[in-house]
Amino acid sequence: MRVAILTDTMDRSAMGTALYTRKLVEGLVSFAEKGECVLTLVHSKTNQDPLYERAHEMILPTFTVPKLSRFLSEAFFLWRTRNDFDIIHYPQESVYPLFWLSRANIILTVHSHIEGWKNWGLKVRYGMVYITLRFFSRHIAAILCEADTVKKSILRISPVPENKIHTIPLGVDDAFRQAPEKGAAQARMHERYDIPSPYILNPARVDPHKNIYRLIEAYASLKETHNISHTLVVGAKHWPTENVRVEKLIRQKGITDSVLFMPYIEDADMPALYAGADVMAYPSLHEGFGLPILESMAAGTPVVTSNIFSMPEVSGGAALLVDPENTEAIAAALWKILSDTSLYHMLREKGKEHAKGYSWQKMIDKVFGLYKQTSRINL
């Protein structure tokens, strides 16, 4: 079985779709080394990542045509290799619908609810995905998504047959299950990153849909009403206009010394970051999956998250769910966990048990099984 996977996202980042692609490639490389497939990693430019030394590497051709370079690169790649692969996997959904140029079976991963992009200003991305699914789905052999709510979103906006869409959840690294105990984790965070304890954690970057603004409002309310001593630790600044909005709110609430934007945390210390928190607050307005929910649960930290999109599905009844647009509800849920020891321990144990059902190896095995099944399809 000859498999090609597009890996540009893996080269650019370590989060989100990049993490998904990296974990998938790591697993596929192992299958290739056992002789179960011939794997080609396709990307735009050379990279020193050692994973590329363990598989065939193909660099996309370069065209210096303004606004059309990527379009032409993908078109040329698909046409030139039209007979070379059984499977071509696009591990993220923002693609040009040029699949018909290849005779390979195309697999596309759709990570998020289509409506979510439209709601949060990602109109170009929404348009590309909508056009691909609405008008070119007959050229796609299989679609992967990480939650059933995403599958339902695809079915709402496109004519894709349900049997073409496969839900395969993400996994959790064992390192989170092996996180240090809370006291040791807090000591490590203070020593290495100057993060004071106790703290409430939200690891998400400051993007509008991550709802950091309302979380800060809820936190300020808790400080005023219950005089909590916790620091609120949130992800790095990212979206410029949202950064300004959030910083202004922090100044207005007089909590400049109590809100900490996360410094860069080494991957090896992420489990301790979760384990040291009293609660992980994740009231996002849109998630295609919500991996921090499971990472927090695996590390033994209770979770407050949203009651919309994929978050109820991913949390599996082991978190407190809130309306993410209701600041009072967010504050009330946080206070329940901070003030009720029995609830804290109940959510901690339920979360750890729930997270046991998710592993990267399970995801990889299911994806590879789908490759084998799909490679026999004659479109």
Automatic annotation (TrEMBL):
The keyword DNA-binding does not apply. CDD domains: GT4_MtfB-like. Keywords: Transferase. Residues 41-175 form the Glycosyltransferase subfamily 4-like N-terminal domain. One of its GO terms (molecular function) is glycosyltransferase activity. GO terms for biological process: lipopolysaccharide biosynthetic process. It holds the Pfam family Glycos_transf_1. Residues 197-353 form the Glycosyl transferase family domain. Gene3D superfamilies: Glycogen Phosphorylase B. This is Glycosyl transferase family 1 domain-containing protein. The lineage of its organism: Bacteria, Candidatus Kaiseribacteriota.
